[in-house]
Records
---
Amino acid sequence: MLRRLSPAFLAGALFLAAPSEGLVAQGFTPGQTSPPPPPPHPLLAALGARPEPLSLDELIDASLLSSGVGAEGLPAAREGLGAVLGRAAAAARIAAKAAAVTVPEAGPEILLAEAALKTLHEGGPLRGYRAEATTLFDILDRGAFNCVSSALLYLLLCRELGLACDGIQTSDHAFCVVRAGGRDIDVETTNPEGFDPGTKKNFTDSFGRVTGYAYVPPGAYARRKPTGQRGLVSLVLSNRAGLLEDRGLRREALALAVDYEVLRRDAEGMTFLIGRINNLCAAFAARSDWTAFRALVGESRSRLGDDPRLLDLAIKGLDGYLSENLARLSFAPALALVEEAARKGELSPARRTEFLVYLYGNEANRVGRAGDWLAAAALAEEGAEKAGGERSLVAAAAAFRRNFAVGVHNAFATKFNAGRYAEAKSVLEEGLRRLPGDAGLLADLVVAEKALVRP
């Protein structure tokens, strides 16, 4: 079975909101997560850079590593797999030689390739189909196989026998194509009669007499495409990653996807890897760990380059971080973060405007409440200019100037009502020096000057 994953894609928009204290209260500290995924396995990376066909030894190593063996266990695993292949190859040669007596017209290569498949199933290591049995160890330890693991074992056996063989991939399946008798022959490796599907296979008794036949219909292989030897090995990694994601182990799945991508070196490998990055980011977002989210995306972009899909994740990660943390940051560093993100393309113009309105509005209110209404007005005007004349900040600046004028008027009125006209006039003059042309203060000044000239 070739697994098809449904990635938990992130929502397209994250809305500005006050920070939540719930996770902190529960003992969760943002950013306290495991380290970024490891770099790719050096051997798999090296094999991914080489042209095919790979040597049998290289294929065996890649298959074992992809199946989960560690570097320390590789020598013993090589020996065990080599023994299995050796026994199967010997049995296949004997069976092909016997078959040549009854069907000599088939040719030795075709008979050997077909005998290899039957040898794996009939008394061989392939004992029972299990959809999740995707590694060589599933076969070697318990005889369980699926389309990927059985195709991989058949590929290795063909190479042991000196036959040219490659992998074929469809949207949800994998099988092999073997070059024998001068033609390419499909091999459905999950079925002992799956050699050259669509042809009849005669059953004979020990005297060579035909007693019946088997027929395996050709598969409806939609969008079949050659995946090569490395590509077939890589499907073990993608299936394992899918099984891990089913268990919620997204970071472990991502580590396998890193190896999958370097082994394939194609668009499909990159798409799969970025899908796993996305899904781990979705897990971070679900628990509001925007620090880990952004660290993962940053590390991924440094390794993989500026893929548009990673840029989209960077935008979502910063958006989420800012939405939940702006209220915790002081004005200057928060503003610098927003502007740097916009410069790098990690904030859309619309979201930049929203964040600027939020930052400048909050800071202006703070300054105004502290008593400096004109400084608050200046901040609101600065924000409005940066935000393209955003009307709410323009209106806020006007309101802050009115608050200043009201304060001056009230101070003037207090002194005027006490008959201290000269002091009242000085209050107004100072106010007009700071807010020239204010109509209300100019009207108050006229009243003060008239009071000063009255006899």
---
Amino acid sequence: MEYNLKYDDNGVRKALQIALAQSNRAFCFNKAKAIRNVRVDYTPAQLEKVRQRLSGKSNAQLRAELEQKNSEVMRIYRHFYPADRGFSHSDEYQDALAHVFLERGILVGSGDAADELYVDDGQ
């Protein structure tokens, strides 16, 4: 958003080049739309709660659980109703979960259609 890049392969490559050129990985945004896109909506308490819930799990366990629909990790931000009648979703806890994954060196993404976290292995 900051650089008006398209959401296509070329835009993604250019965004990655820009990000990797920032040796300290600190990013400054000037456009209001870009700033809104990266704002933090979860509280410090929510972040700490997620850190605590994941503290006993290895990175391999976290990666595996992110791929399972009703895992403990997924239940941090989703509550699935019985008889496959849908789920409720918390954007704040999803973002806090992504924060903790990134702290632990696990790159995650969020699907557009399903709005579900996934492990991004750069593929």
---
Amino acid sequence: MLMICFYSVKGAPDNDMVCGVLCYLTATTDETQTNTVIDANVLTYDFGYTPIVSPGTGTPGYWKNHPDDWPVASITIGGVTYTKAEAIGIMQMKKNSDKTYDLFRALVSAKLNVLIGNAQGCIYDTILTADDWMASHPLGSEVEANSDAWQQIAPAYEMLDDYNNGLLCAPHRG
């Protein structure tokens, strides 16, 4: 008696979440395979995963202290282009109550992390949102932590910070 079986293998839905079980892994095969299995124990189908090669993310502290690792000579934040030296100088400034400087540091770092080849799917829209906010609230515009302006962008700032610290879709530099 000939028996033909069809099998379907699918990952659990939580694997699709940001940093689910398969975080930092990529499939070693196409997303789907269709094969007819005629005998038992056919072991020729690969449903494996391999680690994603990623340079890892850096925090503002990393980027301001490693100018040789910058992949660009200038960076645009909120529509304003800064040379690497200018951006590093701003990132090295003593922290004050103006939150535009905090967002600047986080946004520069996130953009550099993407530019060096880290995954960006989880942060791309947040980078765009933060960039637009910086265009409306230029660096040095005295945005206070308790202001409505900061409350609008604070969730995006937290996402940028999480991304830069390797807590989202790209690992931290190791």
---
Amino acid sequence: MFVLHRIVAAGAVVGLAALAAAAAAAPADDLRTCIEASGAPAMAACTRAIGSSTFKGRDLASLHAMRGAELSSRGQHDLALADYDRAIKLEPQAASIYTGRGNVHLDKGDSDRAIADFDQAIRLDPQIAGAHYSRGNAHAIKGAMDAAIADYGQAIRLDSQFAAAYANRGNAHAAKGDLGAAIADYDQALRLDSRLAFIHGNRGMAYLKLGQLDPAIADYDAALKLDPNQPYSRYGRGIAKQKKGDAAGGNADIAVATMLQPDIAAIFARAGVGASGSVAGSTPAPSAAVSTPATSPASAPPQLQLATLTPASAKAVFEKHNLLGFFARDCGQLVSKDNLFFVNRLVSGDYVQTDQMSGPTNRDFVILIDKAGEIDSNEIVVSGTRDGKPINMLWRVEGAAAGAGTRVRPMEVSWGREKIVTGQRLSGSGREVAWLQRCG
């Protein structure tokens, strides 16, 4: 499994100083926040600036593009595209806006529209490295590796410090079976940025396929030091350990990786590494017998899968259990770090948005929930995304009948793959949250 690195371009077309000079004080502050901040503050500032009627033409196009980037980062791709479409109507010659919109199409899985936008961006500005890079990503997703390698190469020629372009060109070489060229690109990417765990993992996979087990394990060690809960590196290290004869260490790594990502064996098999530990195109070491990972509750308790719970829409489950609205430890007190409010609201269709409020106007996080499954009459598992990453949460409900008085204990059980649900109860490092009272 070679991990593709993605970069989302905001597509702003003008500089802060140029815009701020023409704006009144309050809109100028919103403009600065829109461009320089991120998350909810940037979103709110962009929206206020757009609604202020202060900015026109190219300036307004920049604001729509910045808000489009924020919406895209939240997974709200259709709303993001609407902002990018508006920006392009206002400033049809801005290559960076086409690049930003192309990245949204790519995130939606529409590689053809993405390529069309990247083509237009490159026609308008052939020197924009990000457009070549993103078009390379689109070609790679479509399986056109020669075209991807050409685009990554052009991005590198335009920006010799583009670590992600080297990394993804390495992936394209690896997909073509040219592991030597792949490793050379990974080497350069890591010289430019040694903190990228996924590049260590990808180079580890290349070494594993070549049968070079010691450098493979060294790379997987480096990846896991940077990201201890990366399932691909842990599984790959497990296979490498087994092939070196360390069955116990290999089985332990594989068991943890399988808990973190239950379909990890199938993913590796598609990448040419068999579930049994054999690597396509290489000869296993005679002493590296591969055994099935332990599955006893003591070593690897089975992970509760939402699919086994007959998933329903989040809207239906939240309405059934009266979980829409505000919940707080003390509804009569102000929001604070010691009195967090969970705000559950419908946003569109079957999606529920959960905000954790830490102050009168501040939010600690936003979760977009798209599925829910019931363990029993008062335990629910919900799944969605937070900051573009998958998250599962276990909710326990008391007094679930309709009306005031419902209490809920939302417990974060997987975030950054550090916490997991096993069996039918919380385990691992998940921390229970105090009961919250529904606010009418």
